[in-house]
Amino acid sequence: MTARHVIALVLVWAGVGIELVCCLGVLVLRDTLDRLHCAGAVGYGLLLVAVGVVVQESFSLIGDKALAMAALMLLAGPVLAHVTARTVRIRRRGRWELGADEDVEVEQP
C-alpha cells in the first residue's frame, strides 16, 4: 500500500461516514425542516469521496467526473433544501407574500 492509496482510502471512508451520519439523521429526526439540515450536509461527504477519487486516479476522466458531480451537489443541495423548506412553510401557513393592504408587525427589543 502506498501513501497515495492510504490517503484516498481515508478520504473515501470519511465521506462515507458523513453520508451515513446524514442518512441516520434523516431517519431519526421527526420534522421535515429538521431533516433538511441533515440532507443539506450530504454534499460535503460527496466532496470528500470525490477528492479521494482524484487522489487515487489523478485528474483523469474519472477524477474530473467525480469533482463535477461533487460541485453540482454542493451547488444544487442548498437550493433544493431552500425550495423544499419554502414549500413546507407555504403548505403549513399559507402564502408567504404580503398583500397591498397588509402591514408587517415589527417587535422592538
Provide the fold topology.
Blueprint: H1 3-28, H2 32-40, H3 42-57, H4 61-93
Helix pairs in contact: 1-2, 1-3, 2-4, 3-4
Q: How much of the polypeptide forms β-strand, as a percent range?
A: under 5%
Largest sheet: none
Question: Outline, from the CA principal axes?
Answer: elongated
Rg value: 20 Å
The average pLDDT score comes to 88
- The amount of helix comes to over 70%
> What structural category do the secondary elements indicate?
mainly alpha
Describe this structure as you would to a colleague.
Helix 1 (3-28) packs antiparallel against helix 2 (32-40), helix 1 (3-28) packs antiparallel against helix 3 and helix 3 (42-57) runs antiparallel to helix 4. This protein has helices at residues 3-28, 32-40, 42-57, 61-93. By secondary structure, the chain is an all-alpha fold. The chain is elongated. The mean pLDDT is 88. The protein has one domain (3-93). The chain starts with a helix and ends in a 16-residue tail after the last helix. It is built from four helices and no strands.
Q: What is the gist of this entry?
A:
The protein is an all-alpha fold and 109 residues long.
Which features characterize this protein?
about 110 residues; mainly alpha; about 75% helix; elongated
